[in-house]
Specification:
Its main location: membrane. This is HlyA_1 protein. By secondary structure, this protein is α/β, with parallel strands linked by helices. The protein has four domains: 2-304, Alpha-Beta Barrel (TIM Barrel), CATH 3.20.20.80; 310-376; 379-560, Jelly Rolls (Sandwich); 591-768, no CATH class. Helices cover 17% and strands 34% of the residues. Strand 4 (113-116), helix 5 and strand 5 (163-170) form a beta-alpha-beta unit. Helix 8 runs parallel beside helix 9 (291-304). 50% of the residues are buried.
Length: 768
Amino acid sequence: MKLSIATHFSHGGAYSAKTADDLLRLIDDLGVQNVRDGLSWARVEASPGQYDFDAWREGYADTLADAGFDLTLTFMARNPLYDGGKTAHSAEGIAAFADYVAATLDRFPDIQRIAIGNEFNGLNDSFVSGPAASNDLTVRAEHQTRILKAVHDRLADDHPDVAIIGGAMHSTPTGYVSHLIEAGAMAYMDHLDIHPYGLDPSEAAQAFERLNAVLDEVPAEIRPTLVATEFGQSAVAGDPLSNADYLTKMAAVMSAAGFEMAAWYALLDEDRSGTPDMGLYQSRSEANDMVAGFRFVADLLDRAGRAVEVDLGAGLEAYRFEDGTMMVWGSAQAISIEGRDLAFLSADGRPIPRPERIDDSVVVVTGREIEISAGDGPGVLADSFYDFSLDPDGDTSWSYHAEKTARGKTGIIDLEVMDGQDRMADLWNPYLGGTHFRPFAVTAKTVRPADFNDYGTNERAVVERFTVEESGALDIVASYDLARSSTDGVVLELRLNGETIKAVKIDGRKVIALRDVTVEAGDELDFVVRDGGSDNGDVLTRHVRILEADPARSTESLVHEHSVTDIIDGNETPPPLESGEEDLDVVRGTPGGETLLGGAGDDTLVGGAGNDLLVAGAGDDALRGNEGDDRLEAGAGRDRLYGGQGQDVLVGGEGTARMKGEAGDDRLISGLGKDVMIGGEGADTFEFRELSGNDIIKDLDAEDGDVIDLGGLDLASADQVRIATAGTRTFLEVDQGDGWDMLTRLEGDVAGLPSGGAQAVENGLIVL
């Protein structure tokens, strides 16, 4: 595969005749020979049948040829002289367009490759308009085929060796490709053009595999090869080399998929566009950080030959080139690299130390007899992103299903491959789903449940199933980010062999970790996502890793590494686990014990049967301990704590907390805010460590064994404690040396309480 660069000499402006020499030097310095650009039909043919190439924007091809560059020229079928300026659709308009293409090739005989149209399947009316822009994609493909055929037939005699690039499609729309095949378009092109925007390289590998499977249905004599006259992405803020990393990975993926040429978009930044920071240069005098990476990849593709994908196991992406060079990246884990004369390079070609761990940053390995494998120690068993497969029969531990609930019955449906943009409203890249339950969809990054009669009476929940291969213990860490368009959130349910082990409401961003989960070979672990009542906007980005259990590793370390290497934008610099600044739920061990941490939103944290730790975040949270001896900690919001069964500890925070111990002998600890404490059944202890003066004990009952613990205060004797009344209200007051202060209001069985602190201490009601 050859690397190319997209330019805009036909637009003028920064690509003017005055800047041309400087820009050509930049292109030459990149190490590429091919340039992709365009031409304005309206400027060339301002009068019917009269072609003028004298101006710079129409004649720049001569300058490129003189400098030794090959030009891939894109032609757009729009001219105000024909069909009202819309995309040519009449016989006259299409014939005129074919004549214009032929005239251009007559004028510039060095041009050997042309692209007909640009993103013909898209929604940009600058690229396709009028009847050709029909939302009926069968009709649109037929229009495009008529244009391709006219150009093909017009060039057959005078320019038979010029290669025609067709398709010119945004994304990897395998469904639209099928429409082109049915329309007969493949007979009129040499190359099929894909602009694979919006896909991570790992996703692109799956999409290209599906694309090649669709093209395999085309007779060999007319099957086009693949090119990309555009690809690229905007640099990630704070990560100037993100583009180089993306380019290096895509080079391997596209080479392995059989692409012959790929043009990076673009030479110069277009900061005023909707896609800034894609250019190799900020200006003709200022290079962006990824230039070194582009040179490195261009040279690698020239010398290393074609790439092939190598299967290294769960969570790893790897490619080997013909000269032995390898690339590897993937799910965070230890890695082993062996061989002779080894060198290790980053995405921009800089030497780096031998890596002991791998993550989502690509590592390039040169040398001889290179062998790469997962490293020693607890490893990755499955990764929802890197191990995702569009092949239902693929070699993976994951399988994908829909759980259908309708008319009171529930059943499981296996998913099928849905080709991208089979309909205009479909996803434009291939995905997993079902013909009869759109918009349900599963991709490597996202899941989208569907509900056809709100509140579960006719719904399709997403089921991602991991089948355990070996008995043992697992650590599971997963991050989620729900689209802001969701109206009522989604529910995530984790099941082990059909039994629910965790259910979490997701209405924003969450990270969940399960530690030391015991499983047997053949067990099924299901990650089930259903709508929260309505499926409006319920697109959930997720990244799940299933690991061999590592008891020596802290949950904080596990979650941190996952967060900074997952696919969710914004997790690159997560807060410390204990901060609660993110929507974060952490679960340790099930069913033995759990830890749930609330985030910035309004969370509901529900413990299980074990001894659980539930910690509220910044929002207004509800914490329910349920069975077991639990510890519930309030946060900065207006929180509600319910201990449930067992001997529970409920702790107030900085905000307002309503604490209810419920059954069992519970301990309720006042915080800094205004707390309402209700012990419930059993002999409860109400503990004070700070003097907030805003608290209420609602059900104090000395006969049931309730106790007020003041051991956390600076009190030397019982004389510093008293019980006072004001009207019908009863208060507990303390004197810490500067006068009497109210500690808490007392309610419940308070009629017979002694007024003196000494007697209360002596009777055991108050503990100092």
